[in-house]
Structures are given as C-alpha cells and as structure tokens.
Amino acid sequence: MKTKYIWLLAVLLSFTACNNDDDSSSSMDETLPALTAGDADFSNYVAVGASFTAGFSDNALFIATQENSFPNILSMKFDMLGGSSFSQPLMSDNVGGLLFNGMQLPDGSFGPRLYFNGSGPAVLPGMSSTEAYSVLGGTFNNVGVPGAKSFHLGVEGYGFVNPYFGRMASNPMASMIGDAVGQSPTFFTLSEIGGNDVLSYATSGGTGVDQTGNYNPATYGNNDITDPNVFAGAFTASVDALVLNGAKGVVANVPYITSLPHFTTVPYNPIPLDAGTAAVVNNAYAPYNGGIVQAFAYLVGVGAMTQEDADAEIAQRTIMFEASETNAVVIMDEDLTDLTGINPQLVSMRQATADDLFVLPASNFIGTEAVPGNPLTVNGVAIPLADKWVLTPEEQQAIKTATDAYNATIESVATANGLALVDFKSILIQASTTGFSSGNYILNTQLVTGGLVSLDGIHLTSRGYAVMANEMMRAIDDTYGSNFEASGNFVDCGDYPTNYSPTLQ
C-alpha cells in the first residue's frame, strides 16, 4: 500500500517567497540621511550563538550560507561605521558536513547538504571534504556553533564534544564565551540561545525528558529539555561576561519551534484506503477496541475512574478506518492510561488528530510495510508509529512552557543591561500565519516555497538570514539611536537565495 502525501509540490511555479512588486514605490529623489551609529560602537563586533549564527542551512554548514549568515551581513553594515574585519571559520567547500579522519559517519549525521530535486529535499551526492579534526587556529568573530545549548556556552573544552567548535576554538580547553570575550568586543549579538535547549526534544518526537527541576545539566540526555533555571544561569552569566567591559549588543528571544515546517508539513491523516482494505484493518483492530471497553468498565467498577472519563478515553482510543483518502495514522501515546496491567495487549495507542505534529522524516516512513507485501504490517496503519515520529499535545506544551520561561529570562536580562531585543517569537508566529513582510517580499514557513525556512524545515534560508539581519538592525536603531533603516541601509532580502543548486560545489 502506498501512502498519499501532500507535503511538497512536484512542480513549483517559484522557489522564492511571493514578490509584491509595486511600481508605486517612493521616489528615489528623496535624500536619505547619512548613516550614524548612535550610542553603539561597532568597531569590534563578535557574534555568539548556535546554528543560526553560524549560517547553518539545508541541514548543513557550507561556505555559501556562512557568507550569507546574519552576522556577516551585519558586519558589512557595521564596517560602514568603522567596524573591523569580520572573520568566520569557513568550511572547505559548499558540500557541507564533516569528515572524521576522512570518514563519513555511518548514521548520516554531519553529512552533505540537502538540495531540491524537483519533488522534495534530497541529499547532495558525494562526500564532505571538511575534516572535523583539522583545527583552524586563532580566534573568529563568528562564534556560532551548531548544536550548542545554553549551558554549553561557558564549558571549557566544549570542542572535544562538538566538532564545529573544536575546529575553531582558540585552544583545546577554550569555551565559546571565553573565545568571544577574549576578543574584547565593543558590540555583540547573542542569538537563538535556548532554541537547542528544546529543539532536540522536539525533533526526536519528545523521546527525551523534560528536566525542569533538575539543576545538573551533566545528567541530561541529548534530547532533554533544559531546566529554565539552568538556562537562566547560563544566559545571565554569558551576558554578564560580554558586557563587563562596556560592550553593547542585541539579543533575541526564542520562537515556538513547533511552528517550523519540520513539524507542520507531514499531515496527521495521509492514509488512503478503499472499502475492502478498511474492513480488513478494522477487523484486525476489533479485539483491541473491545478490550479497551472492557478494561475501562473494570476501572470504573473498582472506582479508579469516573464513567465520564472512561467514555472520553474510549472514544479517543477506538481505532476505526474508512474508505477515504484521509485516514488518520495510528500512534503510540504514553500519556494514555496504561491498561497493560489489565491486558498486556492493550498498549497505549490511538489514532492521531490535527493537534498532533509529525516530524518531517516521518514522511518517508508512514505507509511503508514492516513485512514487504503484507498490507497488515503497514506502519501507521496496522503498526502504530513510535513516539519518535510524533509530538503529542502534552509534549508540545512542555516545549512551550520551557520556551516561555527562557524568553522571560531573556527579556529581563536584556532590560537590566540596556540591550536591544529582537522578538523572533512574534516574527515566526506571523510568518507561520499571515506571512512576514520584508521589503517587496512576503515570506512564510511553507517548506520549499515559503522562502524563509530551508529544506531541513528548521534552519533559515539565506533570504531568511537577511531578514534576520534587518530585524536586528531595526532593534539596534530603536535601542541605540542608530539609523540603519532610515538611512536606507537595510538589505534587500531578494538579493539572497532561498535554495542552492546541487552544482554549487
């Protein structure tokens, strides 16, 4: 059986965001004021952050997107006000990914970038040529490290566990903040700190642990949510170190990452069934449906549950397929009442609803057959999808709660230190609903066609990073009295691409 997906267009009218060309633009005869810095000193700019700061895009880091990173775009504007040269730890080419002693990791991590092949994202053929263990030496103005979480910023020797930092660290025992502060910046950006503290939990389908209440990050797993107090301590310490010698800067809050296309592209109901197949599948589920009715009757009878609650969960857990193109998949849900003590066959499964979010890789798994040729082994139909493929509402709420706590800290620390603050949370909300206007373009979060988010569904396109640079300059204007916008020095996001050809090497 094949699963029908409506998540990518086979033929695109455009690879770009909508262009709102308007011939009635304001007259070019208007004289714009000269660019001024206001109260800010841009003579030595250092950027600290994670993958967005690095310029990560299309599931990889490569030269073209590093050159289009928002810090590099900002540095060219700062240069007009006396800024110094801006150095970045460039990769070896535009293939992306890393080699480890000449070998590509077998699990595909650190692999080549994605490109659009006409029907969807595909992995660039070939092998990466950037050696992870080839240390560049020196220091770099762009201290953007993909994968870095808040509590990693001050960890000495972090390069031993994160090769992106290892190849750029000033010495083996350096920390990200140490390398940044050691350059005596006069201006800094501290962006997307907190994003990775919930991202791996989200991309793993909530398989990690919400560590709220655990103040020891040394005990965390890779996919866990960082405790808000741990985040607050790490973020505050990083800002304190950066402003110690009078540096000014701009920070950004954390968006609701579940609005990104990595989580909104795969539908919850992509299963097409004819009447005959639906009847066969329903017959297979009949014992389960009958078993949960009996189990909840027992729980009500012993006073462990009210009849109202039992009826609600019976309705939630009853699995029924129809002759339709849009049947919901079956998923495991650990938040359901555990009935296996009553009957081991009554595992915690249900059909998905529109409130569930599926990770982008699920598009290649839903509808496959665990046993080829056997329609009763179809994943998502006869076999429920494991936790790693879906974010349930409870898991989404854990992400939101942590994000809100992180953002409260970011706003408080920014206010206390007089820093500019960019509201990326609101920007992403707008982009994922009505679309976000930038110059002559309206960008949204649709995969491939939206213009804002790259092919991995998480990181921005180069055009998205240009928008990010403009919003940072807007915040700098508002806080420090510069005039990047009024002097006509915002960048035209249309000058930056939304995707790259596979021939770009």
Automatic annotation (TrEMBL):
Residues annotated as signal peptide: 1-19
Q: Which GO terms describe its molecular function?
A: hydrolase activity, acting on ester bonds
Q: To which species is this protein native?
A: Xanthomarina spongicola
Q: Which UniProt keywords apply?
A: Hydrolase, Signal
UniProt cross-references to SUPFAM superfamilies, sorted A to Z: SGNH hydrolase
Q: Does the keyword Nucleotidyltransferase apply?
A: no
On the tree of life, the source organism's domain of life is Bacteria
Is the keyword Hydrolase in the record? yes
Task: Report the protein name in the record.
Answer: GDSL-like lipase/acylhydrolase family protein
Q: Which residues form a coiled coil?
A: none
